[in-house]
Each structure stands twice: as C-alpha cells, then as structure tokens.
Batch of 2 targets.
Target 1
Amino acid sequence: MSGWLAIAGLGPGAPELVTPEVTQALAQATDLIGYAPYVARVSERVGLSRHVSDNREERDRARLALRLAAEGRRVIVVSSGDPGVFAMAAAVFEAVDCGDPSWRNLDIKVLPGISAMFAAAARIGAPLGHDFCAINLSDNLKPWELIERRLRLAAQAGFVIALYNPLSKARPWQLGRALALLRKELPEVVPVAFASAVSDAKEAIDVTTLRDAVAERADMRTLVLIGSSQTRLIARPDGSPFVYTPRSAGVSP
Amino acid sequence: MSGWLAIAGLGPGAPELVTPEVTQALAQATDLIGYAPYVARVSERVGLSRHVSDNREERDRARLALRLAAEGRRVIVVSSGDPGVFAMAAAVFEAVDCGDPSWRNLDIKVLPGISAMFAAAARIGAPLGHDFCAINLSDNLKPWELIERRLRLAAQAGFVIALYNPLSKARPWQLGRALALLRKELPEVVPVAFASAVSDAKEAIDVTTLRDAVAERADMRTLVLIGSSQTRLIARPDGSPFVYTPRSAGVSP
C-alpha cells in the first residue's frame, strides 16, 4: 500500500468540532505526529504509532512525517485549529521545498479544521462580520518592525484584527506593545476580546475595550480579537454582550 | 420547551466537512432557514420545516429566525462556509441590535464551519501560512473606494489576500479593477488561485500569476487567493504545484 501524508486540523478543542474528514483520516493512519498536547487529543489505538515532539520542533516534525510517508506509511500530522493557519501545513511545505526532490510526488493533503479565530468569533457573536485580518504576533520568524507595520496598516484599513500567539514566557512584551500601538490608531472604545481555550473545559472569554485591555490577560492558548471602529456591542440584561461588526461599514476609519 | 437560534456553517460543500456540532443542531431543530442552495444541502425530515429565501434577503431571513425562536421554536439558520465570515451571523446580530429588545435574551449561538478560505487554501497547499486578510469584494454594502483602499493597504502590509464574492452578474467589473490595482502594488509573478465550488462535484481550482489572472475566471462560487511577495510554488512533475507562504517572511514588501 502506498503511503500518504495528511496535515489535519483538530479544531479548537471540543470533539464535536472535529470534521468527519479528519476523524476518517485518523482511523486510517499508521503514524500520528504532532506537538504533545495535540497528539494527546487523539485516542490511542492498536496500529497507530504516536510520535510526539516539543512545540518548537516543527521542522524536524515535518521531515519525519515526509520520511515516513515516503517509506509507505500513512501519516497524519495534527495541529490545533486549522493546519494552514500559523501551524504545520506551511512547515511541511517548507520541508518539501528544501528537501528530497522525491517528496514532491508524495500524496500530501491538507485537511482543514475549525480555526481558533472563527471558534472564538462564534462564541461572542459575529466580530468578523466585515473585512478582517490575522497576524501572528510571534517575532520568532519575522522582525518585530514588520509586525508593527502590519498592525498599523491593518488598523488604517479598518480590518478587525485577530492576533495569534499573543504572549508566551519567551515573548512577554509583544502584546503590550501591540496594544499601545493600536491605541494610537483606533478609538479607545473599540471592543477587544480575549478568548482562551475555546470549546474546552478551561474556556474563558473576556470582552473589554482597547483602552482597558491588559496584555497579561493572554497566554499561549489565547486568541485576541481587536474590533474595528465599526464593531458594536449589544448589551444583554441576562448575560455577556454580543459583539458584532456590521456588514455595511460605510465609514472609512 | 424554550426556543433557540443556531446560526450554523455547513462548510464549503462536502458532507465530511460539516462538524458534528452542526449535524447535532440540525437533528434537533424544528425550523431550517437559509438561501435555497444551502437549505438544499440539508436532508429533509419529518418535524423540520424549511424556509427558503433568495440570496439578497438576509435581513428578512434574520428577522424571521428571531421571531420563530421567540415563539419557542428551535431554529437553525444555515450559511455556506463559516457563518461569521460574510454570511448570516452578522445579519442576525444586526437584526437583534435594531429589533425587538426581547430578542437580546434569546438563546442565540453561532456554530462555526470550515470557511471557503481555509478549504481553498488546504486544496493547494498552505498559501495562508503567514499573515493574511479577507476582503469582501462586494460593494453592495460599502463604497468601492473603501475596498480599493483596503486592497492597497493589505498589499503594502504583505498580507496574503482572500477575496470573497469576487464577481457576479450584478458586479461584473470589480474583480478586474481589484487585480489591476494589485498589479501596481505587488510583483506580477505573485501566485493567484481561483478556487470554485471547493469540495463538491463541480470543484475547479486554477493557479496562475497576478500578471496572467483573468477576472472572468471567477463566479459567485469562487474564492480568489492573492499571494504575497513571499508566496512560493513547488513544481511537481506529476501534478499541479503546491502553493505555500513560508512562516518566516522576513522581507518587507
């Protein structure tokens, strides 16, 4: 039987947000590869070898997956959320681009998942109802100046902004700097949402304003959504507010 | 039994891309509401009333859904892709914001889906592997000048750009104008993908360059992805190329 490689998204956490396509691929795979907490989300079964690795080792993980598929194994690499969004898909294609030329003919598929951004948005309403962007706030792989430039242009464009990887122990100051920059570009009343561990037992979602947003609220499992000047709150007597961005944002920021 | 309203994403087309969460909600609903082609994707069953409407009637559809939920019905509004992305979720919250104050206390949930953008990206590789944005090219609800401004700023920011609603009979020239504008901002060799009807029987995906992209290739079911200056092709002797954007885009456009 010839090998294949599937790069699959497990969604934000809840099993009911894993697509049947991914469930089927997991059932057929011989080898499961990923960052330990994501591999732990997949049930063990006979015939499925598990290869766990640390967070920073995307490159080695991608090369292992490609080598195993080339040997005829049925390999699934798992990411949280969608694998194409700041996750393993790009790492695998980088490895293909720079690696053994025969890897280009492997059967490689990307299986989309529910991204953190859309799962978080769904929990609070429809904050991404108008044009939006996603920025990885990690400066491990790009210069901080480029991130600042993108934040500024995104705010000037009137995009709602989803910030991935906002804060970690190794990157403690980046989100604070980003919020300070955005306060110069956007009204201070713009809604900001911190959405952590969406759809699993530790889920915590806080809606505040750009003025009151505190960077330290975030951690590695938090997605931060910054509204545009058009984003609105709907107060609810019996619960937390709905947040949405109208489809018709006629006013330039 | 008290009513509820779920605004659900059916994903791009294939049943195996519908989340179990959405499948469960469809099984419990009493009323199914949506644009006719999306309602047609849900199997008929006894006890589920179907309310179909035309594409342009989002506002009436949202108000009908809210009225029925307020009457104690279990209502599901379906969108293609993700309901929070240029789809029904924002329309419903607009209706809540402007409608009967009692609607604010309804049990309203958004159930995320696999968006057209991520489904299309998955089919060709990892074009969204770096920072990206999504722009609705329809000028029905925002001035064309704002769309041009956003395209220009997005290109200057180095975002990969996903264009929703690129072309329709009522909006025949917008995508051509957008491509002409982007040719002034980006290298002409930037990869461009036209992804139509992803994951269903009529799926058609073409990868070209910004120089050679022809607007008329698109229709209402097409998502257009515009690469950044960093987006790369991996040629494959045996098939269409992989398209990806490396995680480390150190160079400002």
Target 2
Amino acid sequence: MHLPPNPKAVLIDLAGVLHVGDEAIAGAIPALRALRATGRGLRFLTNTTRTPRSTLVQRLRAIGFEIEDDEVLTAPMAARDYVRSHGLAPHWLVHPDIAPDLGASSPNPTAVVMGDAGPYFTFEAMNTAFRLLASGLPLIAMARNRYFRETDGLTLDMGAYVAGLEFAAGVTATVVGKPAQAYFEAALSSLGVAPHEAVMIGDDVTDDIGGAQAAGIAGILVRTGKFRPQDEHHDVITPAAVEDDFAAAIIPFL
Amino acid sequence: MHLPPNPKAVLIDLAGVLHVGDEAIAGAIPALRALRATGRGLRFLTNTTRTPRSTLVQRLRAIGFEIEDDEVLTAPMAARDYVRSHGLAPHWLVHPDIAPDLGASSPNPTAVVMGDAGPYFTFEAMNTAFRLLASGLPLIAMARNRYFRETDGLTLDMGAYVAGLEFAAGVTATVVGKPAQAYFEAALSSLGVAPHEAVMIGDDVTDDIGGAQAAGIAGILVRTGKFRPQDEHHDVITPAAVEDDFAAAIIPFL
C-alpha cells in the first residue's frame, strides 16, 4: 500500500510504540506533541487487556504523554460492544483489574469471552473455560497477540491461551481487538475519516500492520517494542513504510 | 486395518480404558485377569504425565487391577530416553510429582521438555519456557492430548499448553509419548513382537488409534473415557474395531 502524504488521521498502537513498561520510547513524547499540533485526528488502538482504559491513560500521562480517555480504543471495549450487539451472555475469562468494567459473568453463559488474564490464567480458570467450549459455546478473544516486550524481555501474551483453548476444544476464536477490521473501522468512524485518509503506526506486523492494511489503512511498522528483524520480511504483509521509531514515522506529517 | 484374530500382544491405554479416576470401568478388572490368563504379552501405554509410574501402578492395584511396574510404559520415560539419546540438556516444565524421576533442569538448557504440569502451568512457568523457545531452543512434549475424562467431566490436558507455546514462539513440538511411532515400537520391542501381531486398545482416536495404526498396529477404539460419538466418524482415522468397553474389546482374544 502507498502512504497518504497528508493523512487526516493517525492511528497509533501504545505499548512498544510510545512506551515500553513505564519508559517512553526515545523522542516519542515530543513527537506526539508535534503531531497533535498539526490538528490531525488521533486514535490510540491497544490490544492490552490486563488494565482498564482509565489506568492506561493515567500511566501514559505520568510518563509525560498528552492523551485523553476518549482518544483510546481498547480491546475490552470492543469485546463489550460485540457481546452487546450480538446479544451474548458472557463467561468472562479476564484479568481481575478489568472485570469491574465488564460486569459479572452470566450464570448461564452463551459465550466464553477472554482477555489477557496473565497470572490469572490458572489451570482452574482455563479448565472452566474449556468445559464451556467443549459443551458448544463460542470463543470470543479480545486479542491473540503472541508476545509483547516488557522492560525485562519478551513476554507471553494471551494468544498462547487462545490457541490452547482452540486446540483443546476444537474451536476457532473470533478476535474483536486488532487485527479485526471492525476495530479499525470503529476508530475511523469516531473521527469521520475514510481508510485511505488514515495511517496506522505499530510494532506488530500482523495485528497492527496486517490488520490496518486489511481495513484499507496504510501501516507504518516501527523498529521498537516487539519488532524483530524478520518482521520486515513477512511472507504476506508488506508495510507501507518501516521506520526506526515513532518520531521517525511521524516526521513526514509535520 | 484388519484385526489379527489371535494377537501375541495387547497394548492397552490406562485412563479411560481400565479406569476413570479411582473407579474401574465396569468389567475391566475381570477382563484384564482373563486376558492375562491367555498368556499374551501385555503392555500399558499411558500419556499421563502428572504422576510417576510407581504411583500409577499402586493406584491401579488399589482399584483391583493385576499389573506390574515393568509392564507400564509412560511418556515421561519416553522423554527421558529421548533427552539421553539426543544428548540434550533439558529445561523441564513438568508436574512436581514427576520431577524427582527426571532430575533437575539444566542451568544452560538446550531444549524445553514439557509434561502435564496441570495446576503448575503457572504464567511464570509458561513465560520462562516461552522465553527459552523464543531464544531458539526446541520444544519436546511428552504428549499433546487435548483432554481426558475425570470423574467430574472432561478435563483440559497438556495439549492446550503445548499448542499455546507453539503458537507464541512459532515452533513445532516433537511429541515423544503417544502418538509417536517410537513409543509404540518401544512397547513391541520389549515384548519381541511385530506390529501385525499386536493390537492397541484405547479411548483416544487420534493418539491411541491413529498412533498405533501409523506404527502398523491395529487399533480398537472403546466407547468409554474421553470417547465421544463423533470419534467413530473421524476424517482420517478408521479404527480396526470399535467396542463398547475394554471387556467387550478383549472377548475375541479369550
């Protein structure tokens, strides 16, 4: 895909693009400020599902980023919308920190909906979900990311647990976060912008770049966060551009 | 495949065929006694990897089965043999109950070797294994069973965790328990019997029956344990016979 020279909107992944853990990626804070000053629409799309949006935004502000709650779309929000629009009674397999935003699990669930429970992916929680899936319930996953970069190295993301339940129960999950087209469309719709008028900046070649480009949005892969050199030579996905980091990625739009 | 009318050896899965939890499957205790009286060679092949062989055998005896330690081949034994014959330094991701039989993990491992850790599949243990795999180590799995039947229902087996690590790290596990051909061959070799002179009785259409038949051994699927009606109509695997239970399966050999 070709990069629009003057995009109306910039969609931005958070972890690995703006920050790693509680550290800003070099140059990202002033770069975001400069990008914002151009008046372009901004939306932040994250597949992080261990933390509620309000906490994510507070952390980003504490690091030094200017960011508003309404600019952030999260995979748990996408899951809540999906459950509501499909009339599902969810069994939530999620991190306790996001549970209050989602409500209680139904005593008679019609779907298993999972986020990144991290340390709360206990055998008991997985087995409960497995039994529901084996009895015929569908599996909705907020994301299926393979790993993310923490300050101490690559860390297992929820995709492993999605793949595990899929294998054991013989089901295929519906993913509602990135790379789902509806998730990117929701971001564009909230800005009133068409796909060819936007770009997506991310460190995940499949979920950020592959997902955006499948939705008609040019993707810029950055060489930070979970990026690994082989990501530049992906079998199927060719990013519209590859840049060293977020600051380098947005310079053409200033 | 055709069932040999007068097999020299009978290979038998344990959980779901002879017993479920601490209960014998109806008729299995006298059936095994009668089969043993025919003088045929017997080997028990189990993918259970949460429990050491000595404990498995004690439990079976407590239930009422006549069974000797030497007749039982376990997936952890197969893993130990594989590690030794391939000169690997293992990082063991296993249940603490079988750890003493396997020895300590190497401080400089050259392979991740996993069993069914069950409740000990903590996020931390999974993440440690993931990081080793992401750094290039191969993955050896004792089994990749999807589930087994406990007294209170189907229960998640280690396959979910194998599939999860495979997905996250982009690797493919080598399985050393059933359905690995070498595992069935080790059983035959210990009896000095050729594949066409043996039968395998199991409740798992892929690992027991598919594995045995790939090794040239006719498989008898029983409708107990994890058996589900759709297993009789598997896409690829056609058991040499399907019988209601172990007792029905061995009657022709008495």
